Amino acid sequence: MSLDPRLLVVATALPPHRFEQEETLAVARTVFAHRLRDFDRLAPVFANTGIRSRHAACPLSWYLEPHGWGERAAVFERVALDLLEEAAGKALDAAGLRPADVDAIVCATTTGIATPSLEALLLDRMGFRPDTVRLPVFGLGCAGGALGLARAGMMARAMPGRIVLFLVVELCTLSHRPEEASPTNVVASALFADGAAAALLRAPTDGGDAPGPRVIDSAEHTWPGTRRIMGWRIEDEGFGVVFSQDIPRLIRERLAPVVDGFLTGRSMTRADLSGVICHTGGAKVLQALTEVLAPATAGMDDSWAVLGECGNMSAASVMFVLDRRMRSGATGPHLMLALGPGFTAGLTLLDL
After folding, report:
1. Residue 157 and residue 210: Cα distance in Å, rounded?
2. Where in the chain is the domain with CATH 3.40.47.10?
3. How far apart, in whole angstroms, are the C-alpha atoms of residue 140 and residue 131?
4. Where are the beta strands (DSSP E) in 139-225?
5. What residue stretches are annotated with the Chalcone/stilbene synthase N-terminal domain (predicted)?
């Protein structure tokens, strides 16, 4: 008998503009090579990320020109709403539900700002009820998929029998600034991409054997002294990306005790996991996670596949991995793991 929220369905959506990694390298060379002395030394990062293709909110030509806050915000609102409508519509159709059946919406993003928030703008657009409970979540960055799903699970647990819709959208490419010729911006150009996902959750009212994967538990850990490891610089032109080359080292040195402590609280070890669902942070991050999470490495192939096909879509990425893992027929306890600004590890324990 369990009142754990059930994951009814997961759906994803990608913007229409798809770039091969060779195309983005050619554009980056056009933008940065004449202004950045070390560009040729940095260029191999495009091949070393493990990314073959990515999707973006705008055509490649858009990224060749500078854009201000206002223009970026307008593109963010338009494209983010289109992607969320697509992902939410897919999820509702798959579950045989209507927008009016949804009782609460949790919406996570860190790559743009809209007020009213995105899920509020979707109410009339999709036909959600006026009394829908809304929880916009901003600032979790790449951890927003794992922690946002956990927040949606908490809400579902507090509202047994009600339908909770979790939405996540990230348009990372909108932070690209051609006027900033820096190594960090080159690496960001090689790594980040855009995407959205949706999930529907419901907690049973009687503790019976309701169908669907269970959202069992969640936790987060924010390491002291790491506030500048990852985040945004807020500047006149928009967001400027901040991330440290020390992230893989930090994972290797500090993550294992956090994971083990979380699992110990559930009377589990890594060996008890049937698999993992990891955010696609990049090749070096996935290599570090594989080392730390061993022997629980089933599912890492799904992370590598999503990274190769879609790049790093920040918070949305881990939901793509979850979708792929579920479609593969995987079962048993899985640890969903993502790392974001703070510097924070987000962990969610699922039973697929």
Report:
1. 13
2. 6-202, 214-351
3. 26
4. 164-171, 194-202, 214-222
5. 72-202
Whether the Cβ atoms of residue 80 and residue 168 lie closer than 8 Å to each other: no
Distance CA 3, CA 204 (A): 6
Residues 50-75: tens digit of each pLDDT: 999 999 999 999 988 889 889 999 99
Q: Which fold has domain 214-351?
A: Peroxisomal Thiolase; Chain A, domain 1 (3.40.47)
Distance CA 147, CA 220 (A): 8
Structure tokens at 212: 């669907």
In eight-state DSSP terms, residue 188 is H
Alpha carbons 200 and 138: distance in angstroms, whole number:
20
Is residue 142 flagged as an active site residue?
yes
Contacts of 253 (CB under 8 A, 6+ apart): none
pLDDT of 244 reads 82
| β-sheet bridge partners, residue 312 | 192
| Residue with token string 């956990």 | 150
DSSP state of 252: I
Nearest to 307 by CA among 286, 335, 277, 338: 286
What is the predicted pLDDT for the residue at 209? 67
* Of residues 194, 168, 189, the one with CA closest to residue 179: 189
Q: Are 164 and 106 in contact (CB under 8 A)?
A: yes
CATH value of 6-202 in 3.40.47.10, 3.40.50.720, 3.30.379.10, 3.40.50.970: 3.40.47.10
Task: Considering the candidates 58, 107, 142, 310, report the single residue annotated as catalytic.
Answer: 142
**Interacting residues of 291 by C-beta distance below 8 A, sequence separation 6+:** 252
